[in-house]
Design brief:
- There is one protein chain.
- The protein has 2 domains: about 10-210, Rossmann fold (3-Layer(aba) Sandwich); about 220-335, Rossmann fold, CATH 3.40.50.
- Helix content is about 25%, strand content about 20%.
- An 8-stranded mixed β-sheet has the order 2-1-3-4-5-6-9-10. It has a 4-stranded parallel β-sheet with strand order 11-12-13-14, with helices on both faces.
- It has 9 helices and 14 strands.
- Strand 13 (about 275-280), helix 7 and strand 14 form a beta-alpha-beta unit.
- The chain is of the alpha/beta class.
């Protein structure tokens, strides 16, 4: 099968910084670099083959290390993407991003972008100055995916190391490997190589145009607390005292919570704080425990969402005035 020719596609590349835009003084080093210092024009210049894939419109949205990503930048990015996709002359979006929080940004966009056009995030594990830098090929593949009609209505995607992942499923699984991103529970949606794109499955949960969330309201404060041997309730009490609106527990195993934390969470829910149980394990799903736990605590099961994505969904739910535990549970069961 020959690669699909896509020269008529116009793709907006929005740069936010990250390792893909990183720079180091020693090409043999892949750590100790400065992230987010290479501008989007330089990123594009490093991939001359892009001119054979699509017409490119480039914008520098931010120049940060993605460990410093903020909810304000999420909102600004989503709003800019929606504005661009509303234009007839933009066929898709590629966002270059740091790997540290890419999965959180991708899931936020998955729920707030209001278009069927492709939105593809990509990144790199090695800075642009490194030997065998992975950023240029990842960028080329991301633009290739965004330029394909088969990528429409797939929700927000992540193109990385020749694989295509759904924003809902993907997570970073390595601190150094170039295949750092995986979808542990369900696998990739498809692949991209040498100009060819193939989807082998589709995301089945509602997203983008089917999701009721928007970026008009400020996101409420939601924090994450881990459960572990000998856990103290100090963090939960401090967050509640500070006015947090929601807490996500990174529980052990099937979202189980230390007895000390259980009491703290029960007290928090009585003060109107929403509580969601996720797991720190890395894959699998958290079952709702009914009377054994969730009913007593007034808590919600995150299902297959990891703690970081559960935080994203809880913030959006609370911003949409979804505040009752049963309604929040329905939201997690749906999205």
């Amino acid at each position: 099968m020959e690669p699909i020719k896509t020269l008529n596609a116009r793709i907006a590349v929005l740069a936010t910084g990250g390792t893909i835009a990183g720079q180091a003084g020693d090409a043999s080093k892949t750590a100790g670099y400065k992230a987010g210092v290479v501008g989007v024009d330089k990123l594009l210049e490093a991939v001359p083959a892009l001119s054979q894939v699509a017409q490119i419109h480039a914008e520098q949205i931010a120049s940060i290390d993605s460990k410093d990503m903020s909810t304000a930048l999420w909102i600004a990015l989503s709003q800019r993407i929606n504005a661009l996709l509303a234009q007839d002359d933009i066929d898709g979006i590629v966002v270059t991003h740091g790997t540290d929080t890419l999965e959180e940004t991708a899931y936020f966009l998955h729920l707030t972008v209001k278009s069927d056009k492709p939105v593809v995030l990509t990144a790199a594990m090695r800075p642009s100055t490194a030997l065998s830098a992975d950023g240029p090929l990842n960028l080329l593949n991301a633009v290739t995916v965004a330029a394909q009609k088969c990528a429409w209505k797939q929700g927000v995607l992540v193109a990385f190391n020749n694989q295509i992942h759904s924003a809902r499923d993907v997570t970073k699984t390595s601190t150094y490997a170039v295949d750092a991103f995986r979808s542990p529970e369900v696998g990739a949606l498809g692949w991209v190589q040498d100009g060819r794109v193939e989807f082998q499955r589709a995301a089945v949960r509602p997203h983008t145009t089917q999701a009721p969330f928007d970026t008009q309201a400020a996101l409420p404060a939601v924090e994450i607390v881990a459960s572990y041997a000998g856990a103290s309730r100090a963090a939960i009490d401090a967050f509640v005292g500070g006015g947090v609106k929601g807490i996500v527990i990174a529980g052990t195993g099937n979202g189980s919570v230390h007895a000390t934390l259980q009491q703290a969470l029960a007290d928090a829910t009585k003060q109107g704080v929403a509580v969601v149980r996720s797991s720190r394990v890395g894959s699998g799903h958290v079952m709702r425990n009914g009377a054994a736990s969730d009913d007593a605590l007034g808590s919600v099961s995150a299902g297959t969402l990891n703690p970081y994505k559960a935080r994203v969904l809880l913030m959006l739910a609370l911003a949409a005035n979804i505040t009752k535990p049963a309604a929040i549970q329905q939201t997690f069961d749906t999205f």
